[in-house]
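--- STAGE predict ---
source: upstream dedup step, 1 unique chain passed
mode: sequence only
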Amino acid sequence: MKDIRIVFMGTPDFAVTILETLVTQEYTIVGVITAPDRPAGRGQKLRKSAVKVYAESQGLTILQPTNLKNQDFVDELAALKANLQIVVAFRMLPAVVWQMPEYGTFNLHASLLPQYRGAAPINWAIINGETETGVTTFFIDEKIDTGAVIFQERLSIGKNENAGSLHDRLMHLGAELVSKTVDAIANDKITTQIQPQSGDLKTAYKLFPENTKIDWEISSEIIHNHIRGLSPYPGSWCYLINNDKEERVKIYNAFAKAYDETSQEKDTKLPLGTIQIEDGNLKVTALNGYIYITEIQLPGKRKMDVKSLLNGYNFEKNAKMR
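--- STAGE serialize ---
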């Protein structure tokens, strides 16, 4: 069995669970690489990454480079004498870094590669209505998420599951897979599979205002997937037009309901995006049915359930979402 010395690279909460698992299982962690402290909040005080907070609590050696190609950082990294590097929710590494350890550098990615390469695989799997996803470990190469696959584990996606719930389940599954991968490397039981580089591949694009805005002119089911795929972060959004005022709102929770084909409902539908308040419900007209909004956030307010909203907010007859 090989004597494994690990450098771990990561920044957010997702990575903390994986690092914590490695520490709990008593792997040798010789260093942790994470993002520099950044200003945050109204006071713009420097905030440590989630990984740094945990690493400090365990007395681990921490490096926070701003430039991964900087020679001083490369020298510091080499001085740790790691023979394996593990990357979870970090940034793209230069070759001088990922090629350094004897047993390679592997990444944990929250999708079934080659599907959903990119920055937001958890969100896009739900947005696109997938019923299954998973986690993959692979050796890093010169491109993004294209290296040879080591292991994969599959996970079903619930019909109404949101990105937050799926994130947490994949995080714990990923911790198990990383541990399995380290054990296989330590026992020289690694076989890899080259990823296909072409075909019907879906991409996990970065999330921007342009691709997180709700389009009310598509089907209610697709809108529902969009909302849950962006909840709780970064949140889907649209414009609320009410009382001659247009405001940007975020919608965090909703469900879809198709028109009743046996009634006259779909023949008398209102324009797309029209808001209706019925029996304490807030529903919005979509292409083939309605979206019932259950959790929303108005500008400058905390997110709230619809019952709380309707207690203090009045919608005019022609109010709509756009």
